[in-house]
Amino acid sequence: MGAGHAHALYVHEHSLVHRLAPEVKLVAAFVFVLAVAVTPRQAIWAFAVDFTLAIVVIRLARLRAGFVVFRLAAIAPFLLFAFLIPFIATGEKIEVLAVSVSADGLWAMWNVIAKATLGGLVSIALAATTEVPDILRGLGRLRVPAVVTTIAMFMVRYLELVADELGRMRTSMTARGYDPRWLSQAKPIASAAGSLFIRSYERGERVYDAMLARGYTGVMPALGHRHTHWQEWAGASVFPLAALVAGVIL
Amino acid sequence: MTGAALEVSGLRFAYPDGQRALDGLDLSVESQERVALLGPNGAGKTTLALHLNGILTPESGTVTIGEQVVDESNVMEIRRRVGLVFQDPNDQLFMPTVADDVAFGPANLGLSPAAVEERVTEALSAVGVADVGRRPPHHLSGGERRRAAIATVLSMRPDILVLDEPTSGLDPAGRRELVEVLAGLEMTQLVITHDLPFALELCPRSVIVDGGRVVADGATPQILADARLLSRHRLEMPFGFTAPRHQDFL
What's the number of domains chain A is made of? Predict the structure, then answer.
């Protein structure tokens, strides 16, 4: 992972999955997640198939297991919530390890865990093999409105700058002895947030000027002209289609 | 190409809040000339720059680029011919990668993808950062980011390059590299700066702007040797520096 690839979620590799066109990966991931979402929760075999498919993709992308598990921590809050369901759900009670839990709740818990894990795995595979600019380009080629992709692009570009600016403000406040403990001391934070907003707004105007200066007419030019082969669509479609079939049949 | 590349006459402009920024400014720059635009903060230097490619519209007076008087009808052509490099490279570099950013201008001109790619390579090599194309702007050093910002307008193959405070925030080596890059570019250049040694090194001619009009215009060594003129307009050579006399310079 060189300095050249700065996005924390991206893993620099030269695998089959990395080379796949971004729009193909986006559609495949979306359909796969959709297939997982509509799979009935009792269809354990279908989930096993889905899980195998996800692992195959991750292996093909040459992602390390440790990395994937570490990234999967992002879904931990959902799991935490899932573990509560059997205790708070109503309905028929069964005994598990001498604790009375709701049978329906157990299924609901399993449902959340299985689907969140599968969704997480696919998102990790997508983010680790596709750089953010490529994802945006892929969305553009999938006819997502330019307004949406442009906003996302600017957000990605300027989020770090705004975070830096916030960090510098905090440092300068701390350097002058600001150590908030009570709500009544929150005023400087509010005014810092306000001035951050104004600064970002002013930057927005300067960026717009810079865009005008280079001939911007209100439409972002389409950049990148890589041709997507039908083989890519065919090859990638195997995974979500298998998941769909598994969800419906098993 | 001979004759004036840039002709500004009687330019007047006030911001919506009533603040008068330009008050009858006249300036003529010959083709292939490098001119330093000096002056205190708030003198109207940046406002002038924003008029040179039609981002701001004057109250009265005209800007002529080559034979074209800047107006609504030719503003796109003017924006190709006058490359404006903003003070903060973070305002200039708004695309996810440097290559995308350098491609933004030529793509707006409607060039074919292959031609755009050729322009990108050409512009990045011209400023000596040919290898940073795939990187996101926030992972460049200050000097690289500045040169990448210049590449974003060079890719439009402008006749005139206008730079706003190009040395701000650069370390001494970055500053020297910038001098080398700019000195190597054969085109008309107008350089707004507070860095008087930089002006001396790069620009044979200097113009002082104060109160929205030109107050001095001459050979840089002569202008910088006139300590009284400089101090009248809040300019001074850094401690320990004196401008070489004009005859020494030649």
Answer: 2
A160 lies within 8 A of chain B by CB: yes
Q: Which two tokens stand for residue B107?
A: 């793509």
Q: What is the DSSP letter of B72?
A: G
B76 lies within 8 A of chain A by CB: yes
Least confidently predicted of A21-30, A114-123, A222-231, B15-24: A222-231
The distance from CA B113 to its chain's CA centroid, rounded to whole angstroms, is: 28
Is the CB of B248 inside 8 Å of chain A's CB atoms?
Answer: no
Neighbour count for residue B219 (Cβ, 10 Å) = 15
Residue A156, domain extent: 144-177+191-213
**Is A87 part of a structural domain of the chain?**
yes
Per-residue model confidence as pLDDT tens digits over B131-180: 998 888 888 999 999 999 999 999 999 999 999 999 998 999 999 999 99
Instruction: Output the CA–CA distances (angstroms, integers) from residue B179 to B125, B143, B185, B202, in the order listed.
Output: 16, 11, 10, 7
- For an interface test with A, the pick among B97, B112, B140 (most A C-beta atoms closer than 10 Å) comes out as B97
Which residues in chain A are closer than 8 Å to B137, comparing Cβ atoms?
157
Residues A133, A155 within the same domain: no
Please tell me whether residues A160 and A237 are part of one structural domain: no
Please judge whether B86 and A209 are an interchain contact, meaning their C-beta atoms are less than 8 angstroms apart.
yes
Above 0.95 for ipTM, yes or no?
no
User: What gap in Å lies between CA A128 and CA A134, rounded to an integer?
Assistant: 12
Cβ neighbors of B130 (< 8 A, separation 6 or more) are B121, B124
